[in-house]
Design a protein that fits this description.
Strand order of the largest sheet: 3-1-2-4
Radius of gyration: 23 Å
Bound molecules: zinc ion
Helix content: 40-55%
Order of helices and strands: HEEEHEHHHHHHEEEHEHHEHHEH
Structural class: alpha/beta
Shape: flat
Length: 354
């Protein structure tokens, strides 16, 4: 690894990160900065491990630049899909634009958890639902959204939304989209009322959370674009570059009365500060209920904005974060250092070595 680092070998980019003891920063193997002596370097296999060990990301090679960005070949395909989202893409169409269907399938499975075909079918069904809600005849809507027959459309629609097209005129959509952040890709969800989901997409619970969303909101979950998600994306970027401390995008909290009370208390913890579970329970008028409070925080579906990362053990220790402790540590370090001074330029030096 030291050889790869010394030679700036780009084939190791993403394979490991080099942390430099003397400066407290960690780098990509390809970093243009002067190379450290071997005895001053530690190697980590992930950003999370380097952050947990107390290193902060280098400002030159930006090792936390949103990971998971689609490669150029895929970006073109995604742009084409968005140009005409009603179009149905078959394997032959992919080959025609010189894309290997197997490669496309792998990328989608890895990043969205579904195949390309399933993704765009869901996208077309979501658009079709919009037309049905606006009073169009469902049979015609199926034809204009890439389905060969009314029965095929009815079947696919019913399988995805658990309701037939004619019975869906009042079914509201809950749009989900993927966002890239310095802490990894996140899945966001929005209804017309506001953001109802923001989760790290590597989180194991994500399917459970989405299933619960469907239950609480009684909505059709569809992939796509949404004005609240676009605003959230912008605000997250400003948050991570230290330019804002509060989010203004509307959020929708839906759960049991106890969960909602816990989440509302979280929303009142100021930026850069922490409270204990005991304190949170007391403030909710439920002294001694810290375990139940911890569970309710764990069920929070809107990470970062509903700041469950700002609750710590009474002795100040970090514990229990669905997105992983390293992310909790990163968020708290980021907010604490920004709490002292808001820097004019958006850099990622939020995580101080401590
Ligand atoms: Zn670097």
């Amino acid at each position: 690894m030291y050889r790869a680092l010394a030679e700036r070998d780009s084939t190791y980019d993403g394979v490991f990160f080099a942390a430099i003891r003397t400066t407290g920063v960690f780098c990509r193997p390809t970093c243009a900065a002067k190379k450290p002596r071997q005895e001053n370097v530690e190697f980590y296999s992930s950003v999370g491990d380097a952050v947990s060990a107390g290193y902060r990301p280098c400002k030159r090679c930006r090792p936390m630049e949103p990971a998971g960005k689609p490669p150029a070949w895929l970006e073109q395909l995604l742009a084409r899909v968005e140009e005409d989202p009603k179009r149905r893409w078959k394997d032959a169409d992919l080959r025609q634009v010189e894309l290997d269907p197997a490669r496309v399938r792998r990328w989608f499975l890895q990043h969205h958890g579904i195949t390309f075909h399933a993704y765009q079918r869901a996208r077309r069904l979501g658009l079709a639902l919009g037309h049905i809600r606006h009073g169009e005849k469902w049979e015609g809507v199926g034809y204009t959204h890439g389905f060969d027959s009314a029965s095929g459309f009815r079947e696919a629609f019913t399988r995805v939304f658990d309701r037939t097209p004619p019975r869906s005129t009042t079914l509201a959509p809950l749009v989900v989209g993927r966002l890239l952040t310095p802490l990894g890709p996140m899945l966001a969800g929005a209804t017309s009322e506001g953001i109802c989901l923001l989760e790290f997409s590597d989180r194991r619970m994500i399917e459970t959370q989405i299933a619960r969303l469907g239950k609480w909101f009684d909505c059709a979950i569809v992939p796509g674009e949404h004005e609240h998600i676009a605003r959230l994306e912008k605000e997250l970027e400003l948050y991570f570059t230290g330019k804002i401390r509060e989010f203004t995008v509307p959020v929708v909290l839906r759960g049991t009365p106890f969960q909602v009370a816990a989440w509302e208390r979280l929303l009142r913890i100021p930026y850069g500060e922490t409270i204990s579970y005991e304190q949170q329970a007391r403030d909710m008028g439920r002294q001694g209920a810290q375990r139940a409070v911890g569970r309710a925080n764990g069920d929070n579906r809107i990470a970062i904005i509903v700041p469950c990362h700002r609750v710590v053990r009474q002795n100040g220790e970090l514990c229990g974060y669905g997105g992983g402790l390293w992310r909790k540590k990163f968020l708290l370090d980021h907010e604490r250092s920004r709490g002292e001074t808001i820097r004019p330029e958006g850099d990622m030096s939020g995580a101080r070595r401590s």
